[in-house]
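Working notes for the structural subgroup meeting. M.R. asked for a predicted model of this chain before we commit to crystallization trials. I am recording the input and output together here so anyone reviewing the notebook later can reproduce the run.

Input as submitted:
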Amino acid sequence: MRKYGILAIGLSAAWLVGCGPSAVAPQAKKDSSAYTLITVDPAHFHAALVQKEMYPGVSKKVFVYAPLGTDLTAHLNRIALFNQRKDNPTSWELDIRTSPDFMERMLKEKPGNVVVFSGRNRLKMDRIVASVNAGLNVLADKPWILKSEDLPKLKSALDTADAKKLIAYDIMTERFEITSILQRALVSEKTVFGDIVPGTPAEPGVYMESVHHMMKTVAGVPSLRPAWFFDIKEQGEGLSDVGTHLVDLVQWTLFPEQMLDYQKDIQILDGKRWPTVLTKADFQRVTGAPDFPPYLAENVKGDKLDYFCNNMVSYTLKGVAVKLDVLWRYEAPAGTGDTHFAVYRGTKSRIEVRQGKAENFRPELYVVPPSAAAKAELAEALKTKVAALQAQFPGVAVADTGKEFKFSIPDKYRIGHEAHFGQVALKYFSYLKDPAKLPAWEKPFMMAKYYVSTKGTEAGHKK
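Returned structure, recorded in token form:
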């Protein structure tokens, strides 16, 4: 009784200050909006970030199906904060339907036409398949699958969506990061980049490193991780989870809008995995749980947890050697945060995104000439390219720093990770309005991405 009393208080607070009485009252008139969201089991804060803004043509009433628990309470409180904020508050109204059979109930009632999934990755693919089979569109956070044996389910869901003229889409926020956009534009510019260097496993043509942290602040408040987040069978390892963004960026940058065949174009060469060790005190602080739960027992040694969240994968994509390192650390030092490093080696230059101390932990874009003799020609090519970029990104500039060139990017383009969810959602709704606009290459891109993320993770287990 005490547990549910606490939850009831949390729910009441969210309803009263975040949603209002209309969240549970019948609407006076029929909603004419084209799209109505259904949020299912919002076990990750990305589900709330989809609702950080309002969208034209999308009903302000959102249906939430979930079991009664702390994941749901946290989600409601985040939506309440968006509704309460001083600047540009949202006006979401939540119709919350809790029950143990929430998924089956949602499929039976179908009060909306767009299902949002985030978290609980082990079960996500089956839920996506069931939703598409029921005639519902899907907007789902990564990852969709954690095991390569589920690739046929992924293909089935995408094929069914095509047949029913539905849109099943995953949330690739990093495509909207300005440094990634500009990096892609430069790699595609022959006069600046030349051709991609195929490289070798020891010196790949593409290398990326992503560093994430367990203790985070979301929407201005500390965000506790649910204890199950540390269960790799439920959440996935680094590569099979957040690593999907890196895999996506590689193919999106190197082979934009091209059809990929993962069975022919990709070869997994090597994989490794290793843990980040958490003390019991670390675990208590990041989850609020008093102890390690029984389902983590196999990775608990004394008062420490071996959290296998770090991965390396080496593979080739259309003959180009790629290496990715996906790392998780406990907490970022003050004034820092998650970091991203990406380098593409071309015959005329290296295009790099760095986010280290020299950049004040903000991603910056660099162009590095192969030699001092090649610098003058590269400078002219960059001058021409930057002039062409003004049509889409006015104010972007490039400066000669001595040995290399650094891009100057106006702050108006640096909107932040949380805002990218709104950009993905707007793109998604444009596809819903006209399914024919969904690019044909997106489906094979997803198959290729999840082939690398799952097979690469499994390669680490073989060692």
